[in-house]
Amino acid sequence: MADAALAYDVRGGVAVLTLDLPGEPVNTLSPATGALFDAALSRALDDTGVQGVVFISGKPDGFVAGADVRWLGSLKTREDGERASREGQAGFDRLSKYPKPVVAAIHGACLGGGLEWVLACSYRICSDSPKTQLGLPEVQLGLLPGAGGTQRLPRLIGIAQALDLILTGKSVRPSKARKLGLVDEVVPKPLLLEVAMARAKALADGSLQVTRRSLGGTGGGLFSLLGALGSKEAWTELALEDNPLGRVFLFDQARKRLRAKTRGHYPAPERALDAVRTGTERGMEAGLAAEAAAFGELLTTDVSHRLRELFFATTELKKDRGVADDSVKPRPVTKVAVLGGGLMGGGIAYVSAVTARLPVRVKERDDASAGRALAHVRGQLQAQVDKRRLTPRELETRLAQVTAGTDWAGFARADVVVEAVFEDVALKQKLRDEVEAVTPETCIFASNTSSIPITRLAEGSRRPAQVIGMHYFSPVEKMPLLEVITHAGTAPWVTATCVALGKQQGKTVIVVRDGPGFYTSRVLAPYLNEAAHLLLDGAEVRAVDEALLDFGFPVGPYQLLDEVGIDVGEKVSHVLHAAFGERMHAPEAMGALVRDGRLGRKAKKGFYTYDGKKKVVDESVYAVLPPSTKRRVVTPEEVVERCVFPMVNEAIRCLEEGIVRSPRDADVGAVFGLGFPPFRGGPFRFADTFGAAALAGRLESLASKLGARFEPAALLRDKAASAGRFYP
Is 394 a catalytic residue? Predict the structure, then answer.
């Protein structure tokens, strides 16, 4: 097992330690892995023929992805977490003091504990591959770096830059890592091991010297460095970091920004900030103690439990083909065609060509529209060039994967056609017929629709088993969810193929059964409808949006309607009202807003103003409402109960009716597609936390006052009666 997991090989005076955990897609950090590494270092230390050590991964495109999250789950108490943190710190402290130079040769993801590991090495080299990224994403699991990361990173790259990585959990690419000083060199992947071995020897014989910056330098150091850099940014950063008063200001401003962003829901970034500050002001030992104590505390919080549950859910979905029969395999997709090159179609073309690396043909109604589709893809690629994630040559290479025109050229070789046109059944069916006439018999027709039943789109098809829904979210390039919708006759291989394509496009994919609104649009409708009811009941726009921001949504319902289009929201509400009756009735006031030209951001007129630098509530919106509407104060509790509870209730109905396959899929869909607060875990985790009986009781109380739209789902009543849960 030891030889299989960590190979030890001496080459020309350098011990090459190659980590490759058997049977695992990625390398992760655990006590067992650490013990293997310690033993290998002891062996290299005792070997007089070894001058230095190189640490590298045996995985084709990954270094160390962080701590083993399953192992983290075995730590049940605060004391368990603090002890594990202390052990990790001690192990990396030994590495940092190792008598022989240790060079980390990094290719692929070097994240979390993996980055903490290499921070303790003598020298760091990474490949120039786009698959290489370095970061400390622990806050995304409700934790903080617990093996010295809050102390070593600021000492290596400076406080401000370290906080930017630690508090956000974001990662950086090779060029940015080199600029920050996070790595010492960036080299082509084929040269990685060769260069790393040369650097290990050079460090050992003294021909290579490495100078690191110190945390909290003197005034002299400040001015000498400013003289070298000569930039305003350098002056600002160093002026703050290199004197006590500046550091106080830096930390206070960081805390202020954090609280504005998290609204107090995520304790991990603040505790990480505390640990960095303690280490800065009181020394590394005090900082490590603060880090370990915070790690143990955070590990036992509900927030961390919910975020880790989401991590496991998305990990499981990566392995899920979307079909019950494991023998069903996806068919290869070698070319994608897209009907419609607007915002959605252009986004679908981008993720198909750039992320999935597939040739894409876009069809539009005229040359100007086809040109805009190509311009959309180019604009997204140019943004990557501006961030130095792509070179101009790579931009042109990837753009060459996308062609556009007004005819059916290229469709004869398409394996999947994604239709992304206006929400009109007749238009979509007409295009489906035209697609079927020019594509191979094996071609899949997938509609990017948010509300039209796929069963209707399959009616009259020459090959109905190959009609499916692929509901992307806007903007496609950024939103992580893809909702694949199957009707009763969809062939399993079609489902599996579309799920595989979605993953190739970089999406988290859930499979749902056909029905009006499918899953995401259906559960969003009661949330938005109730916001409209509150408006007619006298609530103010800002009060409602602020209450739901405080609950944890990224935007409030009125701002969301402005973003997606008030007219789009009204159209979907009519579809759902027709299907579900009064439960989905949207107030007629929404139609009045549309007739007034209030379509949202796209019309620069909605619930908010869009003609100034600062977005504020457009007070004239109230004049469009019935004259009898009087403004009144609503409590945050009332807003949450009226907007969130029916949303959760509708999610439970979707599970009851088999629209979603499991609470897992429903929670992932709501968090990644609708912005349901991740720290609450999704509608079903929320229902379990709140309690089925308590939730049913509050809905019954609301129903008695406000109507049948609040009646609890039958499945929720069953759980309440049996004191049951949706998750074990």
Answer: no
